Amino acid sequence: MTEAAPTPAALPPHVLERADVRSAIANHDFGEVFRLAKLHGHISFAKIAEAVGYKREHIGKMARPETEGKGVRPRITQFHKVLEVIDGLRIPGHLAGVAPRPWELERPATATRTEDPSALIAQGGAGLWDVAEMLRRTEMSDINSAALESIEQGIDQLARAYPYADADYLHERTRSGLHYVTKQLESRMTLRQHQELLVDTGWLFLLNACVQYDRGQREAANLSKAAALRIGEEAGHGEIKAWAWEIEAWFALTQSRWQDMLDAVEAGHIADQTHSVGVQLYAHKARAAARMGDGRLVRDSLDAGRARLDRLPRPDHPEHHFIIDPDKWDFYEMDAYRLLGDDERAATHARSVIRISTGPDGTEISPMRAAEARLTLGVAAARTGEIDEAIGMGTTALEADRKSLPSLLLVADELDKELRSRYPRETATRDFHEQVMAIKRGSANPELPF
């Protein structure tokens, strides 16, 4: 291959090796990267602007230290812009948590010996044994099948631990997995192995997006979701693309962006029509329709999702985050019926969710779903005049160790509004409202790094 086209702002090796530079890259704090590039690499903002396609003044604003008292400096959050910076500064993909960039795979052209089979083929002089040698080289690899299998098993274990494991633990393990797998993509391997690792990277980005959003890292979660979608497109993997759209639908649902949510659902269905992700997409559509007050669309979506679910085999590991099984369907119906005001049916599904989410020894194996089920029971109790039951259920839900903050707060807000509209003078109502607001204030803190 020919040598990659030069860039005026390529970070020299001694800059890329610095711990502060690597930390800024990992956190996608590119304003800090620009500042350090100028300080330690003597690369002007003008050259950086030329390389990444920004105006020089904008580079200066992003690189401005926040200690200057001019507020929080701008951040780059759009995934395609992140890639432009990575390419413009020649930052290796694994340092930024993305797949190797095309220029990383390019090598300077060197003089080729005439006995090199590739040269002989190009010159039209390759014989039988030269072609055999080329085929042998395509099977040469620095990674074996056992290592690939181990990577897939690790991803599977993380996905199965998602419903109950500590979010910080999952984030650390998933991020470590991304760094390891993307580093392996730089190794010599067969085309089949490269495809498998690319797909593994896609699944890790999907899981990372979910965990980041649970922790309140909205910008980072969007980047991970966009990376997974891009990988799904590059690898031709419909299921990964569909799950990326499902995650976008979830984000939109918790942010009350109904049309964006419906658009994401349709894009997910287009990407994949055979796996259980389609069931989740129908469930999201039903939940959005319930919030929009469209009872007919709720029932049509639930019927379509149930029909898709009934055609699928029962999974061996129903706790896997990217597999939908009949037990999870109670959760989606519970949410829809609560919003439609069908408290009896919502409460029946909520009790079923809590039962299914509890192991034989009393340990909750799906604490996030159980918490939302308790909030549903709280809403039903508030509507029937049982304020003590409503407050008790709501408080227990908010105290759960494993939380998906956006989803939890979405339902907690419903209970909070019911209590304040029906029992505005009760001290318990004010206490619950303050508990919800305290969680919101905590989730509004500056985002954690990628």
TrEMBL record:
<protein>
    <recommendedName>
        <fullName>Tetratricopeptide repeat protein</fullName>
    </recommendedName>
</protein>
<dbReference type="InterPro" id="IPR011990">
    <property type="entry name" value="TPR-like_helical_dom_sf"/>
</dbReference>
